[in-house]
Structures are given as structure tokens and as C-alpha cells.
Amino acid sequence: MGDQDLPGVLVSGFEGPSGICKDHVGELQKHFTLITMHELLENKTRLGPKIQAVYIWNREPAINQGLLQSLPALKIIANPGAGLDHLDLKLIDSFGVKVANTPQAVSSPTADMGVALLLAAARRVVEGHQLATSPDTDSFSANWMGEEVTGSTLGIVGMGSIGYKVAQRARAFEMKILYHNRKRRKLEEEDAVGATYCAKLEELLRRSDFVILALSLTPQTQRLIGSRELRLMKPTAILINIGRGLLVDQDALVEALQTEVIRAAALDVSHPEPLPRDHPLLKLKNVTLTPHIGSATHQARRQMMENLVGSILASLNGRPIPNEVLLK
Q1: 292 labelled catalytic
Q2: Is there a smaller number of Cβ atoms within 10 Å at the N or the C end of the chain?
Q3: Has 229 been annotated as catalytic?
């Protein structure tokens, strides 16, 4: 642990897949005494009262009632990214604890990732790489083809900051842009990206060549895309998911891909993560999978860390908290 005069901040640890980024540790230690979950569990009585903030990284430490009860001085939980489906906001609020996240830091890289997946699936980039590098390949067929992106129709489900940035990028490909959102965007915002609002999801699914999911996971959006919705899509359509795995009924998706109800899928998210190694999605050629790396750039992750530090310091000093998450 660091300087005992600095406020205590609970972190998952320094090693493993949920360990905080090693490049960020020095910056964090300028402001806080970092206490790991292992250290807390070893000595809750001494360390619990010292912790004033929790710094989440890769959804760890997990926040539950037991942990909250063991941290009597806790003021804020700082969560990277935009998704909050792993946090019980009502429970946290009942302890008088604030929550902050970093939606601006992740919107551009996640939109970039969405477009990258769209292009990869449309042009069969992963399959092409495998073909080009296979020791069994002795010729390239002139009839090995993908789908055209330029001039096609893109349906964006979830037109928040990430969805809107996807639309900005799609315009460069001269795509026709449809979107479905809980609330319609302002007309000037629609005009800026050439987007057309679809009040009904069904209309967007029927008309789109590519459907990209860029919305948050809530009880209302869980399994938003199931067998019925997939059958509304064009048989040549491609589904891209950069939101959360549970937005899609994965069993229905597997069946739709196996029976050519839709052409392909490109997924940066799944449920669970990672998928079991025998999951059928891992065996399908018309699936492109990445390991939830929408915001995984050095620049974005550093901005996330800096934003979280700013939110924690603001909370501890009684100032307005940037990116505070308010209960609806």
C-alpha cells in the first residue's frame, strides 16, 4: 500500500485479467492509497474504514451488500465505460454511495470497433485471412465474395453517443442510415448524419442490410433480438453487436446462422464471456468474434482512468462529480 495520508481506494488487484492496468498504477498512487481486495479480505476491521472509493476495472471488485456493509466510509464507486448492468444502483444508493462512469471515453473507440466488425463480416476478412494463410490453399477463387458496404442500409439500434458516432462513420461509406431508439434524436442531429428514425424496431430490421446493436442492457432490452426478430431480417443481413451479449438470444442466433436466416454475425460481446470452448458460435464460419475490446485502446483506457480519478477526487472534496450516474 502507498502513502497512508492519501485516501484509501479499493481495487481488484494488480495481476490477472481484472487487475488494474499496470501503466495506470503510478498515476493512481499519486492520489490514493490502493488497497486490493485480497488485502481487504485479510483485514476488514482495519482496512474497511479507510476505504472511501472503489475503483472498478473489468467489473471487479464485484459490488454486493456484504462489501458495502464492510466499507463504512465509502463515498463513491468509479466504474469505467458506459455499461452499468453489473451494478445494483438502487442497492448502492441505499448506502448513500455515489456512482460515476466514463461514457465519453468509450464512445469513439467502440464506434470504431463496430464499423471494423461490420467491414470484417461484410468482406469476410477473417475467412479470407485463413484462406490466404492456409497451407492447403493452392489458388484463389474469383467467385469468393462478400457483401458491399458502400451504399447499403445500416440499422442502428440504440442511438446514444456510441450509436451516433457509428452513424457519423457510416456516412463516409454513403450508407443509408436508419435508427431505433427509446427517444428520437433532434431533427438537426438526424440531418447531420442523414439518419431516419424508425419508431418500430420491426421496420428497421426489415429494411436493413446491416443491423448494429449499440444499446445498454436493461430488463427491457434483454434478448431484444430473438428468433422472431432475426426472421424479420433479410437473408443477406449481417448482425453486429457491440452492446452486451444478453441483448441477443444466442440460441436463436446460432439457429439463424446455421439455417441461413441471416448471412452472418459479428460480435464483440457474448454471454458468458468468454463463451464455453464447445459453444456452437465458435464453430461457425459466418461468425466473427472478438473478446469485448470495444474500448480497448491505450488512449481510451488512459482517458477512462483519468476520468475516474477526477470523479473520485471531486466526490472526496465535496465538488460536483463529473459523469455522476443518477438513479432514474
Answers
A1: yes
A2: C
A3: no
**Nearest 5°: CA angle at 152, between 151 and 154?**
125
Where are the alpha helices (H) located in the chain, listed in sequence order?
A: 22-31, 37-42, 44-47, 65-69, 89-94, 103-122, 125-133, 161-171, 187-193, 201-207, 227-232, 250-258, 298-316
- The answer to whether 325 touches 84, Cβ cutoff 8 Å, is yes
The DSSP line for 73-118 is T--EEE--SS--TTS-HHHHHHTT-EEE--HHHHHHHHHHHHHHHH
Residue type, 317: N
Which of these is catalytic: 169, 244, 263, 301? Answer: 244
pLDDT block averages, 10 residues each, the chain of length 328? 77 94 96 98 97 97 97 98 94 98 96 98 97 97 96 98 98 98 98 98 98 96 98 98 98 98 98 98 98 97 97 97 91
48 Cβ contact partners less than 8 Å away, ≥ 6 residues apart: 40, 70, 71, 72
Single out the catalytic residue among 148, 174, 202, 273.
273
CA angle 291/296/297 to nearest 5° reads 145
Using CB atoms within 10 A of its CB, is residue 16 exposed (0-12), middle (13-18) or buried (19+)?
exposed
Helices 103-122 and 298-316, packing angle to 10 deg: 160
Q: What are phi and psi of 199, to 5 degrees?
A: -65, -30
Name the catalytic one among 292, 298, 301, 302. Answer: 292
Query: Residues 93, 97, 98, 100: what is their CA dihedral angle, to the nearest 10 degrees?
Result: -100
